Amino acid sequence: MMQKEEINALLQKKQAGNCTPEEIDFLESWYAQWNKDLPLGLTEEELLEDLFIIKKMTSTLPAERKFGTLSQKLLIAASLLVMVSVGLYYYLHSQHTDYNLALHDIQPGSNKATVTLANGQKFDLKNLTGGVVVDKSGLEYNDGTDINGIGSTGVAAQQLVLATPKGGQYQITLADGTKVWLNAASSLKFLSNFAGQKERRVELTGEAYFQVTHNAKQPFRVMSAGQVAEDLGTSFNINCYADEPLSKTTLVEGSMQIQSLKDAQHLKTVVLKPSQQVSVDADGTITSRLVNTEETLGWKNDNFIFDGEDLNSAMRKIARWYNVDVVYEPGLKIGTTPVLEGLVSRKSKLSEVLKWIETVGGVRFKIEGRRVTVMK
Amino acid sequence: MPYKHHNDQELTALLKSGDRLAYAEIYHRYHAALYIHAFKRLQLREECRDLVHELFTTLWIKREEITFKSTLSGYLYTSVRNKIFDLLAKQKLKKTYIQSIQDFAENGLTTTDYLVRQNQLKAIIDQEIANLPPRTRQIFELSRKNFLSHQEIAKVLNLSEQTVKTTINNALKVLRSRLGSMLFLSL
């Protein structure tokens, strides 16, 4: 039997290039059958990761040997860059996120909005407290600081528009004390002063949660595509994004009524009870069901809560909050499944949310710039 | 990309003249196969990544001196084997190969013809690729053999040209995104 020491000596000779032809024949013949029939022993993910790292290492090539001193310095700098990149990769990877998702990660949305005056002047609202208030001295941040350049807007009643972009949210207290939380990609049109009005009428696009200061003499009405929602002493949420198939109004507390505008012939009015959600479709058809209002208000409490939600619907929420476009790989079949159940913080980075959906939803994602692709 | 249409011999000649795109194309065709081969032997990810990286670094730096005795693939496969032997000589690896060499010394058949062994090696690497999970293999095959036109592939696979086009594009998209498009040497 060949001894361990002999084998080691033989390998040393091979490395030094001192083997006899017979020894080379022996070693190379052994090599040809060594581990030949083993399975690879790497998952596809691991394999692609390794190829990715090799690519990263090798992409600093080709390096020329004719380099002068300066070039050598550059080469060292490039090597350092590779080391840092690989280190970063490992760092990101240690967070248990897929490398593509982690490398192209996107931060969550934040408190961002604009306010537009009746004369068309537009102001960016800073992320101070995430809220503004309309009071006698005009429009200001809710900690009492002035909004730069906006001046006094509280004296004369004028129409204001508070609007959030994709990836933004904001809160406002209206002149009557009604509080409104505006979700991403939404807008609220309102009067800076309701005095002398028969009603307190606001117009909504997107999604908002209202805590209305009840006043039977001056009803609070929310106009949105296809419906009017009227407060009867209420907290409620309205989701009426143009890209959602249904406009959904959910009563949290108190009482309210919904009127569908599209169904003019049978002017339908529905009075809601707490936890009741009324949906109005494009034809004006009203349906109603009881829901978990925690889920409906998840966004206001910095969460995505999915309670048997289909992937398409979840991805629309993600698109708005992370300001991304979502595309589906051609041929990918997504029906009403997978159905998502669970809670993820809206303060998470995009990769974390997608990773969670990957583990529960059986799909994969990639991020390129601000585009998320859903893949099988 | 004209480089995809070059065969290995043409690429070798271009490489020797210092053509970086030819180098990139060689890299594309072979890096996955070489890594897979090395990993199956050593089962050590970091060492094998370094090994493939070094191999391609050497290929570029010494491109003018290297004599490609047989084929480009022959050179690369022999190189990966030599590098693995170097690692074995350093004895920093799992010792399972010792047992394997002992067994081979008892019962194995030594092949004395250099060329037969080289062909054996090529056949083994081909077999390893053939045994990959289907999608990984598809990705690999595309990166290695994309000098075939869509029409030719369609003929071989008995599919419509459009189907092949879509499949390839999707596979490449997945590959590019997963490996990071900016990291591709020449796409």
CATH architecture grouping of the largest domain in chain B? Orthogonal Bundle
Shape of chain A: elongated
- Give the oligomer, counting copies of the same chain as homo and different chains as hetero: heterodimer
Largest sheet of chain A: 16 strands, mixed
Number of helices of chain A: 8
Q: Overall pLDDT of chain B, averaged? A: 75
Quantity of strands of chain B, as a count: 0
Helices and strands of chain A: which structural class? alpha+beta
Order of helices and strands of chain B: HHHHHHHHH
CATH superfamily of the largest domain in chain B: RNA polymerase sigma factor, region 2, helix turn helix motif
CATH fold label of the largest domain in chain B: Rna Polymerase Sigma Factor, Chain: A
Task: Using the alpha-carbon principal axes, give the shape of chain B.
Answer: globular
CATH classification class of the largest domain in chain A:
Mainly Beta
> Of all protein chain pairs, which has the greatest interface, and how many residues does each chain bring to it?
A-B, 53 and 63 residues
Any low-confidence stretches of chain A, pLDDT <50, length ≥5?
Answer: 61-77, 83-97
Helix/strand/pairing class of chain B, anyone? mainly alpha
Describe the structure.
The complex is a heterodimer of chains A (376) and B (187). Chain A has three domains: 42-60 and 68-94; 110-296, Jelly Rolls; 302-375, Phage tail protein beta-alpha-beta fold, CATH 3.55.50.30. In chain A, strand 2 and strand 3 (122-125) form a beta hairpin. Chain A is α+β, with helices and mostly antiparallel strands and 376 residues long. Chain A is elongated. Helix content of chain A is 27%, strand content 34%. Chain A has helices spanning 4-16, 21-33, 44-58, 69-94, 99-103, 293-296, 311-322, 350-361; strands at 110-111, 113-116, 122-125, 131-135, 138-141, 159-163, 168-173, 179-182, 187-191, 200-211, 220-224, 227-240, 247-260, 269-272, 276-280, 286-290, 303-310, 325-328, 339-345, 364-368, 371-375. Residues 61-77 and 83-97 of chain A have low confidence and may be disordered. Chain A contains eight helices and 21 strands. The longest helix of chain A has 26 residues, at 69-94. The two termini of chain A are 53 Å apart. In chain B, helix 4 packs across helix 6 (114-130). Chain B contains nine helices and no strands. Mean pLDDT of chain B is 75; it is low at 145-149 and 171-187. Chain B has two domains: 2-132, Rna Polymerase Sigma Factor, Chain: A (Orthogonal Bundle); 148-187. Helix content of chain B is 73%, strand content 0%. By secondary structure, chain B is mostly helical. Chain B has helices spanning 8-16, 20-42, 45-61, 72-90, 96-107, 114-130, 134-145, 150-157, 161-179. The interface between A and B is large, with 53 and 63 residues.
